[in-house]
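Reminder to self: keep the SMILES exactly as supplied, no canonicalising. Ligand is coenzyme A.
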Amino acid sequence: MPCGSNCRLGAYHEAGLSSASRGGLLPAGGQEEIELSTILEIRATDPLMSAVYALRRDVFVVEQGVPEELEVDDDDRVATHLAALSDGRVIGTLRILLHQRSAKIGRMAVSATSRRKGIGRELMEFAAATASRCGAEEIILGAQLTACEFYKRLGYIEEGAVFNDAGIPHVMMRKKLQR
Ligand SMILES: CC(C)(COP(=O)(O)OP(=O)(O)OC[C@H]1O[C@@H](n2cnc3c(N)ncnc32)[C@H](O)[C@@H]1OP(=O)(O)O)[C@@H](O)C(=O)NCCC(=O)NCCS
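Structure tokens returned for the bound complex:
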């Protein structure tokens, strides 16, 4: 769905999210707190995209062995991208594609040193709010099997058979959005 003019998806949108106000970034067990200052909603032409692509390359190409030529695709040009910043550095990202009343989330990545500290959850919740604001009624995504539990904790439900994407087993997952 090309987003309507009254929809801010694709606009340069900033949410100031201090860890104190969000209250959830100090994990039990006393791990170091991450100061996630901002999640930005950006388009492919934004200068910050080079840092987004660099993070995706580190995670998907270097860490997971996804072929480099598959990592960036045509959907990146039309997607809305979220960038989670800490100390001016991109530590997390995902992209949102709107199709009719469905939003598809993909390229969900948190830097290896920032995982299990709530960044992925923050990004997913931000993405759901963005998609809902743009009229989406549900979110679908192709989850790597190793990430299924992460999505399940956010209310996503598996459907269909396991399939291979870029050499990695995936399953589709879906979540209805509250309106
Ligand atoms: C999957 C990923 C995005 C999760 O991000 P994260 O910032 O570590 O996740 P969070 O800290 O917000 O975790 C939220 C919850 O999910 C749990 N969780 C996170 N990753 C998990 C995993 N791989 N398996 C099981 N549970 C997981 C957390 O423990 C936390 O649980 P809680 O509800 O009890 O607090 C991150 O590990 C990553 O980037 N992995 C490499 C790329 C990847 O696999 N992307 C997904 C492609 S489909």
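Points to follow up:
Helices lie at 19-22, 49-63, 68-71, 75-78, 119-133, 148-152.
The domain at 13-137 is CATH 3.40.630.30 (Aminopeptidase).
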